[in-house]
Amino acid sequence: MKCQILRVLPTRSSFCSSVNSTQLARSCNGTIPFSGGTSLESTLAAMNEEIFIDFQKMNKTIAVHEQDMDVVVQPGISYDALNEQLADQKLFFPPDPGPGAQIGGMIAQGCSGTNAYRYGTMKDWVLGLTVVLADGTIIKTRGRPRKSSAGYDLTRLFVGSEGTLGIVTEASLKLTDKPENVRVAVGAFPDIHSAIRTAVGIVRSGHPLAAMELLDDMAMKAVNSSGYSDIEWPEKTTLFFKFAGSPAHVAEQVEEVERLAKEQQCVQFTFSNSADEADSLWEARKTALWNMIALKNDPSDNFISADICVPISRLGDMIAATKDSFERSGFIGSCLGHVGNGNFHAGVFFPAKDWEKAKGLMREAQKLGVSMDGTVTGEHGIGLVNRDALIWEVGDGTVATMRQIKMALDPLCLLNPGKVFKLWEGQE
Amino acid sequence: MKCQILRVLPTRSSFCSSVNSTQLARSCNGTIPFSGGTSLESTLAAMNEEIFIDFQKMNKTIAVHEQDMDVVVQPGISYDALNEQLADQKLFFPPDPGPGAQIGGMIAQGCSGTNAYRYGTMKDWVLGLTVVLADGTIIKTRGRPRKSSAGYDLTRLFVGSEGTLGIVTEASLKLTDKPENVRVAVGAFPDIHSAIRTAVGIVRSGHPLAAMELLDDMAMKAVNSSGYSDIEWPEKTTLFFKFAGSPAHVAEQVEEVERLAKEQQCVQFTFSNSADEADSLWEARKTALWNMIALKNDPSDNFISADICVPISRLGDMIAATKDSFERSGFIGSCLGHVGNGNFHAGVFFPAKDWEKAKGLMREAQKLGVSMDGTVTGEHGIGLVNRDALIWEVGDGTVATMRQIKMALDPLCLLNPGKVFKLWEGQE
């Protein structure tokens, strides 16, 4: 343990002088809570000999309330294990980030996934939290009511705070009914704009599709090249639609989606007639990221990606501009994502020597997203990597306000220090 | 303007000594933002010569983004005026608290209403906010992406903070498609428990009803006595169901709801065959609070109510116990509310001299709600009236954490001082 005297960065203005003038004495290193370890953006990077708290053994389901459709869990359970436990009771926990993610990390990241179009993100599925604060105080943000106006929404302040405000030791999660009669349709489009116009039409129609995902031409080429799929796909911008509900309601939605797709010159519309066929069609979306590896020029190439989310009317222009910039760069890259809510992932493969150039491409895409009233991260978070981008997006004053909350709850900067924003001058 | 030296109440522990030891010098009185003025729980009470900021003239719609299904507004527009403006574009803003409420106050209160069962509460419909902080800094919490993981969720921290953390001057709001083909059904039940079992069955079925509301026997008696309704209603616990969607989907839901209701000995199930009939059936729910006045023993009687929300499996016991306590008290009272998410309003009429007794009844009901893992306020907020109840519900440590955030963002306690929790010793 070392003791350092550090000058805290400005919070908002001289108005809040008690914090501004503080010099921070750190008598011990920071602490990083760790569950599934699947986060991106260096959220879990230990920069200064931080201590990890591993939640591997705190993986219990404490209570399932079937009638209330909620569950109380520890942070070390994964969402897929939880859904397996809930399946017999026909209950379902929707947030579905990358495989292996656990509830603690999902809360820290405010994550989402393919189900977010219909069901929203992690923020919408946490009822209440038990949190250990930086000074060891244990608080419970609330019980299990479906809604509450009782005081500040600390629950949603902790969700997405990347372990910087407190350590979650228990969570009450909302559940819903397990989707039944799941069907999938896939449509290939002549270009990105016709695909996005279809997506906008579907969103406006109000049909509650279970998911709507986009893979661009390069991603579809990767699916074909990987050899994992039995189907030979058109190498065009492709939308994957997931439906769930009563057979009549699904039929109604499929008819409407096919009509909207064909209005936009959809060149191939394939519909699954059974649950097995649905799984097989969805497989291409599910394995897209891994399939991308088939496109690598050189096995030693690195990969970098961005996670932009813009208002859906701008998504066509956004993806088209990003793809243009990839083409100009000479790197192989693609765009895919959760088109129903305007979120997409843009990534390129690049040789190690071109790190700055590749990073510049991502920064350029993020800045374009912000200029379209979007966000630099729809679901991956800020971590270390996107700290500058957070400032471009929301401005100095907003980041300073976040820092002020951090300094109020964790004045010695013990919890995942330096993530989301810098705390002191010279912090890495 | 007067200057007072005040001793700030503890925040969390001696760990946060910078705030704990502060003596607060208030050089001016506080400020209370004011829009529709319909809030309950004394959120807008001026206790110490506070200055009101009236948003009456900041009532503009700045931009409607039809494809993105969002709108940018000023705080002084009412939700019904907004929905009138949006109707031609078949867009809809769901939160529906009491008539006259305006967006600024709806944000401050984190309100909801009858639409919350299907659509969620105000927290789910605010994309981003422009906020003036206590020191005059203007921040924007984010743009208009449908989702974001960029830093702390300041948007949802301000929503429900009752004007104590900042003053909202602009809001981007999410919209959805205007519900079409709205139909209503009404079922009368032998007792509260059979009605709640029906509600639980419907929630578990996963059918996305537009609303599900409960009026107890006393509330139905009030509807009959008021003379406003053409229908002679059974004076029994009654559920009001609202459906919206395609005709086939509505028909499917009505059939399932009728089946579930009849399983629970529903004695009368009435369904509207047209939009006009639907309006006429729903009228009884809409005017329930005003109709209640017909039950008053004495025109000078006062009214007090509570706004409890519990996990739905406990709602039958909760309402039954509350009704028993009303009967024992000798006051006339009833329970009604948003049963789909476990939220109900319990209220009694009482002579002025019995204020303490009537207040005690409400406190007893709130404490029972908390013991059932519920909340003392599902949608009305804390204000001045429920400050003690907030402490019973979430505990000292959680309230101290809220106070710490308040002190970080508004160290001179200029913004709606004393609401949600007390700030200094002796504060009224």
TrEMBL record, chains A, B:
<dbReference type="Pfam" id="PF02913">
    <property type="entry name" value="FAD-oxidase_C"/>
</dbReference>
<dbReference type="InterPro" id="IPR016171">
    <property type="entry name" value="Vanillyl_alc_oxidase_C-sub2"/>
</dbReference>
<dbReference type="GO" id="GO:0008720">
    <property type="term" value="F:D-lactate dehydrogenase (NAD+) activity"/>
</dbReference>
<dbReference type="GO" id="GO:0004458">
    <property type="term" value="F:D-lactate dehydrogenase (cytochrome) activity"/>
</dbReference>
<dbReference type="InterPro" id="IPR016166">
    <property type="entry name" value="FAD-bd_PCMH"/>
</dbReference>
<dbReference type="GO" id="GO:0005739">
    <property type="term" value="C:mitochondrion"/>
</dbReference>
<dbReference type="InterPro" id="IPR006094">
    <property type="entry name" value="Oxid_FAD_bind_N"/>
</dbReference>
<dbReference type="InterPro" id="IPR004113">
    <property type="entry name" value="FAD-bd_oxidored_4_C"/>
</dbReference>
<dbReference type="InterPro" id="IPR016164">
    <property type="entry name" value="FAD-linked_Oxase-like_C"/>
</dbReference>
<keyword id="KW-0285">Flavoprotein</keyword>
<dbReference type="GO" id="GO:1903457">
    <property type="term" value="P:lactate catabolic process"/>
</dbReference>
<keyword id="KW-0560">Oxidoreductase</keyword>
<comment type="similarity">
    <text>Belongs to the FAD-binding oxidoreductase/transferase type 4 family.</text>
</comment>
<dbReference type="GO" id="GO:0071949">
    <property type="term" value="F:FAD binding"/>
</dbReference>
<protein>
    <recommendedName>
        <fullName>D-lactate dehydrogenase (cytochrome)</fullName>
        <ecNumber>1.1.2.4</ecNumber>
    </recommendedName>
</protein>
<dbReference type="InterPro" id="IPR036318">
    <property type="entry name" value="FAD-bd_PCMH-like_sf"/>
</dbReference>
<keyword id="KW-0274">FAD</keyword>
<dbReference type="InterPro" id="IPR016169">
    <property type="entry name" value="FAD-bd_PCMH_sub2"/>
</dbReference>
<feature type="domain" description="FAD-binding PCMH-type">
    <location>
        <begin position="1"/>
        <end position="178"/>
    </location>
</feature>
<dbReference type="Pfam" id="PF01565">
    <property type="entry name" value="FAD_binding_4"/>
</dbReference>
